[in-house]
Structure formats: C-alpha cells, structure tokens
Amino acid sequence: MDFKQLGEFALIDLIKVDAIHNKDNVVIGIGDDAAALIPAPHQLQLVTTDMLVEMVHFDLSTTSAWQLGYKSIAVNLSDIAAMGGKPTHVVISIALPSYLSVDFVVSLYEGMKEICHEFGVNIVGGDTVASPNGLVINVTAMGEVDPKNLQRRSGASVGDLVVVTGALGDSGCGLELLQQGTWTEHEFFQPLVLRHVTPRPQVAAGAMLASFGSTSMNDISDGLASEVNEIAAASQVGIRIYAKMIPLSAEVCAAAGALGKDGLEYALYGGEDYQLVFTIPSQQLSLISQADLGIKLTVIGEVIEQRHGVLLVDEEGVELQLEPKGYDHFRQ
Ligand SMILES: Nc1ncnc2c1ncn2[C@@H]1O[C@H](COP(=O)(O)OP(=O)(O)OP(=O)(O)O)[C@@H](O)[C@H]1O
Ligand SMILES: Cc1ncc(C[n+]2csc(CCOP(=O)(O)O)c2C)c(N)n1
Ligand SMILES: [Mg+2]
Ligand SMILES: [Mg+2]
Ligand SMILES: [Mg+2]
Questions:
Q1: Is 57 near ligand 2, meaning CB less than 6 Å away?
Q2: Which of 131, 138, 256, 276 is the most exposed place for a label (fewest CB within 10 A)?
Q3: Which region holds residue 152: left if phi is over 0, alpha if psi is between -120 and 50, else beta?
Q4: Is the pLDDT confidence value at 187 over 90?
C-alpha cells in the first residue's frame, strides 16, 4: 500500500503499536503535542541524536527495512553507552519518499521495536513527513546515568591504559563487501556484513566499565583513529596505540586477505563498529579482569603526555603520527 492510500495519521497509528516497553517512566507517549516523561531521581539526563540519510548511511539495495530500523536505533544507543548510561527513550523522525510502501515502514519499525525491547527503551514520539528525494531517519535517544559514572571524552590521564571492547574493522569490511557485491562469495563474509547492517551497541559494557572507574570513553562510529584523537584532544593528552594489539576478528583477517587489503585499515579508518574505546588506570582494569564480566576487552595502548601527540606503533615497531582520518561527511 502507498502512503497516499493510508494517510499520515493512520500510518502513525501503525507505528504506535508496541512502542512503550516500560510504562513506569512515561506519562504521555505517542499521541499528544509532546511526550511527558518521569525522570529517574538523582540521575543525570542524557540526550543524543544521530541521523541516517539514504545513500550516505545506507543503500536500500543492500540493507532491509528491518535492518535499517535496528541500526538507526543502535547507533544512538551506542552514544548513550559511551556516556556510561542506560538508554530509556527514543524519539524518531522519518522523511519518506513516495517510492517506499507502508509495508516498508512497518518493517522498519519492527527492527526499531526489536532493539528497543531488547534494551528496555520506549518509543515516545517522532515526526512523519514526505521527502521529495531519499529516506531520512533521525533518532534522538534519551538515557540516564548516575553522576559518578558519567563518562566524558575529557577524563583521560597520563599513565592510563587505552582499551577497546570487541573486535574492530568488521563493519568497514562488511560495507566494502556489500558495495562490491561480493558478500555471498565466502561463508566468512556474512558475519562481517551482519555487523555492518545490524551493529550491537555496547550498553551493558559502557555502564559496567564506568562503574569500575574508566576515565574517558567514546563509541567508535568514525573509526578508531578518529575516536582516540577525540579523546586525546578533549583530555589534553597524547595517546600511543600499538597496531599489533588492535583486536581483529578471524573473519576480517580472512576477508581482508581475499580482498588484498589490510584488516587494520578497516579498524583504524572504516568506522561504524560501535564498539567502545576507553581509558582506565591499570589497577582498575585488573579488577575488571578478576570480576570476569564476560566482555571482551583488549588493551591497545597507553595515555602519554600531550606533547607526543597521537601515535601509532606499526607492525614493524615504527612510530607514526595517527591522523584522525576516519569518516568525514564533507571529505568523502
Ligand atoms: N548540527 C548540530 N548542532 C548542534 N550540535 C551538534 C550538531 N552536530 C553535532 N553536534 C554536537 O557535536 C558533538 C559531536 O557530535 P558527533 O556527531 O561528532 O558525535 P557522535 O554522535 O559521537 O559521532 P557520530 O555522529 O560519528 O556517531 C556532540 O555534542 C553533538 O551533539
Ligand atoms: C551507502 C553507504 N556509504 C557509506 C557508508 C559509510 N559511512 C557512512 S556514515 C559513516 C560514519 C558514521 O556516521 P555518522 O558520522 O553520521 O554518525 C560511515 C562509515 C555507509 N554506511 N553506507
Ligand atoms: Mg553524531
Ligand atoms: Mg559517539
Ligand atoms: Mg553517534
């Protein structure tokens, strides 16, 4: 069915179904001029927004409506995770071109509702408009954090270790496989594509690491090189990263080999892994290791004095400046 047949208001009625997961903190959700929410006592309110634009962030020939819905929420929950917080609500705005169908929107919201339910997040509002050209999705996520666990980019100190969750580079490599149309050629390509189209935000890890005393944190949206440079600039410190220590999955190593590329390049500059990079004193990190929390953590470097800048020790042991050349919207 097309949007004209159904109309704007009936479409919103479809979106409204199953939007609220946790009724305790919502007085008014979808259906009024604004949502009315109950803030948790003694918590800081977190608010973040990220927009996804067709042919900039996604290509509908290589991602399904469901996957796109899931990812639109995931990238926003990832920013709440990087503040050490717990996501609570999202507001979703969509600009719909006429070549999409009502079924597409229903499936988009099924993906959104799946991840919202998984993380206990309510969809409390949004906006629906027509687009003359291309699908645009904007999500605003809200969350809460205990003031003592708030994670900034600016808290790193000389001597802290630099650590990442998970493995890096899978998403950038998955994107390249999708763009080349070669992702069906090998079985080990598929997990890479899935990590690109449906990344999992590291919400539990962010809150846990914060409670164990991480000093600064960033989520990896534009690539590790860019994110560590942001921490270094905000904290007025230098950072040294060791190429050999950057965790790469077996799949990205195999795929990079097949593509004649270097897996490390995807990790440093590919982006969209939505893992966390953080700094932490070594004693605090040992406490986490002893607690065995089931989160994959890898030390990749250390915080050094600002005058050294941000450095990468390459696989041959040569120290180079690590330029923040991740994804830049105006330099593609
Ligand atoms: N158009 C804008 N108006 C006001 N603030 C903005 C605008 N764009 C970005 N910001 C702010 O700039 C800061 C950095 O935003 P940025 O989007 O780079 O972070 P991010 O969401 O972590 O990264 P990414 O968008 O790659 O996921 C944030 O505080 C954000 O709110
Ligand atoms: C069709 C298509 N072309 C290119 C890319 C790559 N890409 C787009 S935005 C971005 C950084 C994160 O976005 P933001 O900084 O806006 O949060 C990256 C790595 C993609 N995903 N799909
Ligand atoms: Mg952003
Ligand atoms: Mg971020
Ligand atoms: Mg972001």
A1: yes
A2: 131
A3: beta
A4: no
Q: Which residue has the tokens 């996804």?
A: 52
In order, the DSSP letters of 302-321 are EEE-GGG-EEEE-TTS-EEE
Annotated binding site: 33, 48-50, 57, 79, 109, 126-127, 153, 219, 221-222, 272, 327
The answer to whether 20 and 116 are in contact (CB under 8 A) is no
Please tell me what DSSP assigns to residue 23. G
Strand duo 310-313 + 238-242: pairing? parallel
Which residue segments constitute the domains of the chain, with CATH numbers given? 3-149 (3.30.1330.10), 161-321 (3.90.650.10)
Whole-number Å distance between alpha carbons of 97 and 292: 48
Tokens 């926003």, located at residue: 76
Residue 199 tokens, joined: 């990344």
**Cα–chain-centroid distance for residue 304?**
27
Pocket test for ligand 1, best of 46, 48, 151, 224 (most atoms within 8 A of CB): 48
What was the ipTM of the complex prediction? 0.97
Q: Give the Cα separation of 74 and 86 in Å (integer).
A: 13
In which band, very low, low, confident or very high, does the pLDDT at 120 lie, cut at 50, 70 and 90? very high
Q: What is the pLDDT of residues 4-13, one digit of tens each?
A: 888 888 888 9
Beta bridge partners of 153: none
State how far the Cα of 205 lies from the Cα of 296, in Å rounded to an integer: 9
Q: Do 272 and 171 meet the contact criterion of CB atoms below 8 Å apart?
A: yes
